Amino acid sequence: MMAKEVTSELSERLRRLQVAVNSGGEFFDPFVSARAQDDLRRAEERMELGANLTVAALVGGTGSGKSTMFNAITGLDFADAGELRPTTERAAACTWNADSHVLLDYLEVSEDRRIEHGSILTAGTDRLDGLVLLDLPDHDSVAVGHSVLVERLVPMVDLLIWVLDPQKYADEVLHRGFLSALVSRADSMVVVLNQIDTVPESGREALVADVKALLERDGLPGVPVMTASALHGQGIDAIRDRLEDAVSAESMTARTAAAELNAIASRLRANLGESEPRMDEDAIDEISERIVRASGVGAVVESIRDSQGLTDSALVMPEQPSNTMVTAIRDTWMAHVREGLPIPWQNAVAGEVASAERLRRAIGGALRSVPLPSISRFPSIVLVALGVIFMVAGLVLAIIGVPFDDVVGRFAFAVFGVLAFGVYWWLAKRRLAHFARQAAERYEKEVRQAIVGVTRENLVDGVDTFLERHRVTREALSF
């Protein structure tokens, strides 16, 4: 993964953790929440040091040729190399096309001990771009100061290069005081036997084997042992290859920051449920339907429908549910919205659900707010009246023989009048029944809307706010 991608990913993780803490902090264990805040600040500070930088450090004792190797690797005559000892009393740094100022300030590398390798013209072309190479003070001359620097460096070093003198590689101060204390960083360590040109070729293999044995005794088996002569450029390319491998891998600062962010997220997730209770329209409609049934609305609707419009309104009235029924409905809803949530979230959600008495009063108010429908029978009366007129007219005309004076014609006219009355009567009755069904449907719809409003106001709205916070917090930690 490219350095910019790593930095972007870590920044996104950090942002999501901050969202989670801001959204759900009050519901986390107080100790966990406080620790998360502190850890986030430290992680942010660590990332500011440069998650896209690869840090390598040359460490060694007086006379090991460490500074000469620094100059050989960089190709610059910058580090203090010479005959006077101790030579390196202050750390030096070389950076390959990267901004390392914050990191070097943290490591307390003086401005006059920093040098840039390359320029804007070479950025992106050097295989070591993004590398910060440190030349640390001689460990056997300023042990206390060096120990402090190493303590600050180790958590972010990607490659620790121990430069040893072939004459002093078995020094107890080196092994007991430093190497054995860095067992946990064995995978990011290389030992270089410098000044190998001073050792006869016949003895070099045995020398390397002896160094490896000492490292194994220190608890560092498998640490690579290389040979080099910084003065003559021997083995420098192999060391550069090691540095290139470190540059191409994810930096220790990035890995450490990622591990810290993951650890913070893991601790925070323990204060969350795996999901939120269902709060969609189906859930709201389901609890509203229970209230509707408990209020006898269904019986009222059926009464209006069955009246066929022959009465002014319903034959039965809706009733405010009993305390026992409302309490049962509320308890069922409470169990639903608290399911799967940790106790602090459960308590917060429960505090937003209206009491049974308040819910009962709200239901009663909603029922009263919807008037029972009134069905107009005037149009049907008009139709019946027209039917009567047609029937009477047919019978009268049949009796007096107008317009037909024969029996068959009179009978047909009378039958027509009676049939006309029957048709208008049927139309009038059907129209009344239609109006009754429409009135029943309209009433049912209005009552359900009123009850859904009560449900949202008393059982959903406040709860939904906290569940949304839980969702935001949970999703922010899903990485």
Automatic annotation (TrEMBL):
Alphabetic keyword roster: Cell cycle, Cell division, Membrane, Transmembrane, Transmembrane helix
Transmembrane residue ranges: 378-401, 407-427
All residue ranges annotated as the Tr-type G domain in the record: 57-246
Record has Transport as a keyword: no
Lineage: superkingdom: Bacteria
InterPro entries xref list: GTPase_Era-like, P-loop_NTPase, T_Tr_GTP-bd_dom
GO biological process: cell division
Protein name: GTP-binding protein EngB required for normal cell division
Organism, as annotated: Arcanobacterium wilhelmae
